[in-house]
């Protein structure tokens, strides 16, 4: 195989081949799914490895903490280290972490393994900026959107897939199968992805320090991160609370039926390439307004019919699709916007952007659980409405500006 080396910005005008877009989208979906496989299996894992009820939640929490730390401390290396090597090495780390989870003899080693699963899953946020580098500006939104659709499908399908697989191969088999998939993926990415050498020649410590300045001084980054934090917190609240709501006496659905409900939400992934095309056409502002509004309205839909009726269940499905559509749209619009700020900063910008709204998601999950415990779906849904509504209020204060840029020095 002859390697292709990419410069910081592509000189060619053609976009990525469709086959490469499909490969990168599939890779993002498969890698992102690793973060979520354990969530529906936490009870089974805890029972076998001896977790107490109070500590079972650490299975999900440590995975999320690992992912958040990876966004801040590993993803920025994409501005410093040859990208293909960095991505393949991170996927190789995922293989070891998944095997560690599959073979863990006790709780301690399992928690270390899932923490490393979280860190290694940030490979997806190295792939997206690299795809932006490989694409002319006029087509960048469409390509980033297509790749992000793969990521969102992976996130939405991970839980029902792991639930179904565990019935046949146990929870350990789920992690072992994922490790095998990652091994194949690492080989494919190494053979097919082009190389890209970043222009930056910084020490790692200087790279991290520059992130603080980027976060503190880049208005576009701040706003897009906050818009998406408001949306992703509502998304996390919804998907934390709805399984509890659907299994409650109001609906009394089985775990299989709840898994089917989660599959409906995956339809929102089709928004990603549409959002990318809108951004490429200069429609970012109206599309952002529409996404934030739709995110808030999705929660209002659940109050139209009486609780527990067939209509209310149908409206809950529609709300899931609308919310996922809105969150995905806003995510792609945000990434497309920050990627215009400078090729040499893309990995750092993406790390800050993702880490900010990921923290919003963690807060949304926690607040949603608290609200549901104290006021059931009514309290949780009104809180869910308020989160994107706050993002919309912030957006309405935004003024039109000229082309943004970054200067560090």
Write a compact overview of the structure shown.
This protein is mostly helical and 409 residues long.
Please characterize this protein's 3D structure.
This protein has 14 helices and two strands, in the order E-H-H-H-H-H-H-H-E-H-H-H-H-H-H-H. Strands 1-2 form a two-stranded parallel ribbon. Helix 7 crosses helix 10, helix 7 packs across helix 11 and helix 10 packs across helix 13. The longest helix has 53 residues. The two termini are 40 Å apart.
Write down the secondary-structure element order. EHHHHHHHEHHHHHHH
Count of DSSP H/I helices: 14
Quaternary form = single chain
Major sheet? 2 strands, parallel
**What is the percentage of strand-forming residues?**
under 5%
* Helix fraction bin: over 70%
Poorly predicted residue ranges:
1-13
What is the CA-based Rg, rounded?
Answer: 21 Å
- Bulk shape: globular
Q: What do the pLDDT scores average to? A: 88
Order of strands, main sheet, comes to: 1-2
What are the key terms here?
single chain; 409 residues; 2 strands; 1% strand
Layout of strands and helices, then pairs:
Layout: E1 5-6, H1 18-33, H2 42-49, H3 58-73, H4 83-103, H5 107-120, H6 124-133, H7 140-192, E2 195-196, H8 204-217, H9 219-247, H10 255-265, H11 271-280, H12 284-301, H13 310-338, H14 346-395
Parallel strand pairs: 1-2
Helix pairs in contact: 1-6, 1-7, 3-5, 3-14, 4-5, 4-7, 6-7, 6-14, 7-10, 7-11, 7-13, 9-13, 9-14, 10-13, 11-13, 12-13, 12-14
